[in-house]
Design brief:
There is one protein chain. By secondary structure, this protein is mostly beta strands. It has one domain: Elongation Factor Tu (Ef-tu), domain 3 (Beta Barrel), CATH 2.40.30. The chain has four helices and 16 strands. Strands 1, 4, 5, 6, 7 and 8 form a six-stranded antiparallel sheet that branches. Strands 2-3-13-12-9-14 form a six-stranded antiparallel beta barrel. Strands 10-11 form a two-stranded antiparallel sheet. The chain is globular.
Length: 334
């Protein structure tokens, strides 16, 4: 057989640059606009526990298996209660959104000092935001998540910004002001049957060659010098290597977003136990609230994953899946 003169390119250009992410938790650049009578936070953070199989009744209309039991590969997230520690206001400018002001609660969690010191004049800043509500573009909540309460050994909390949607800007401000310093559980934000976007950082695989990193074809075993290199990286003249040429480099530890993942189940460990005998492999016991998401999620076990309201929402009614049985590597759970 002769050699092909053309072949599809190896590796999608949509995922460039393939560099290491700066932190373990994902950075969220956009939040959806939702229509709701009451203001609500648009996301929640959980920690990856492991994978299980969930037996449910198929409730998708016109599906070949409608009304029949089906197996779903799913992922469990341990969700500690989030604490709303701050409020940030944005105003519109020629360069886009810019921070107008921010205010933090006087009752910060004890572990928050391990992360950063947050000091603000509460009365002055809260009145400044209230007086300029008409000129503001949007409000966001600053939350703190304690990994220790989710079953991890880490004490230092994760702090990040979460969007708020629904109702009017005035009602969003009242909601955040009234809940400053209070805890929010996952069941208040995420509901079974809804679709969510998942944002996380994938497993890091270090420095890898172009065969593993991009999936290029190996050369024949008698090729010159090496088998696992690209056949040519560019022309002799002009001497230039295009950025699209597969080269060795960092693989994994990239931020990735998966859209419209279905929430199968939400419960508390004290009400509905999910822990197998001896706990989950490499994680241990889930102490409190947990969420079961259909499909796989990015990252290794114990990696934080952010659940966000769907930004590419599909218009469909909220169908709560009927869960029959859960099964893990260590046995079945009724």
């Amino acid at each position: 057989m002769g050699r092909k003169h053309s072949a599809p390119r190896r590796g999608s250009l949509a995922f460039r640059p393939r560099g290491r992410h700066g932190t373990l938790n994902a950075r969220i650049r956009n939040w959806p606009d939702i229509k709701s009578d009451e203001p609500t936070l648009l996301g929640f953070m959980g920690f990856k526990v492991g994978s299980i199989n969930v037996l449910t009744i198929d409730n998708v209309d016109k599906s070949p298996t409608f009304g029949k039991p089906i197996f779903n590969h799913a992922t469990v997230l341990s969700c500690a209660p989030m604490t709303i520690i701050g409020l940030r206001a944005y105003t519109d400018s020629l360069d886009g959104l810019s921070v107008f002001s921010e205010v933090y609660t006087n009752k910060l969690p004890k572990e928050q000092s391990r992360k950063q010191k947050l000091n603000s004049d509460y009365e002055t800043n809260i009145n400044k935001i209230k007086e300029n509500l008409e000129s503001l573009e949007k409000l966001c909540a600053i939350v703190s998540v304690p990994p220790k309460q989710a079953g991890l050994s880490q004490i230092k909390p994760y702090s990040f910004e979460i969007g708020i949607g629904g109702a009017t800007l005035e009602s969003q401000f009242d909601y955040l002001k009234d809940n400053l310093g209070k805890n929010v559980s996952v069941s208040e934000i995420i509901k079974p049957g809804m679709l969510v976007d998942t944002l996380g950082v994938t497993k890091g695989k270090g420095w890898q060659g172009p065969v593993k990193r991009f999936g290029i074809k190996k050369k024949q075993h008698k090729s010159r010098k090496t088998v696992r290199e690209v056949g040519t990286v560019g022309a002799w003249s002009p001497q230039n290597i295009m950025y699209t040429v597969p080269r060795a480099g960092q693989m994994g530890f990239h931020q990735r977003t998966e859209y419209n993942k279905k929430v199968l189940f939400i419960a508390n460990e004290k009400e509905q136990s999910i822990n197998p005998d001896g706990g989950f492999l490499h994680f241990g016991l889930v102490p409190e609230d947990y969420v079961i998401i259909k499909g796989s999620l990015p990252g290794p076990i114990k990696r934080p994953v952010v659940l966000r309201y769907p930004i590419r929402s599909k218009k469909q009614k909220l169908d709560v899946p009927k869960v029959i049985k859960l099964s893990t590597q260590k046995g079945e759970l009724e």
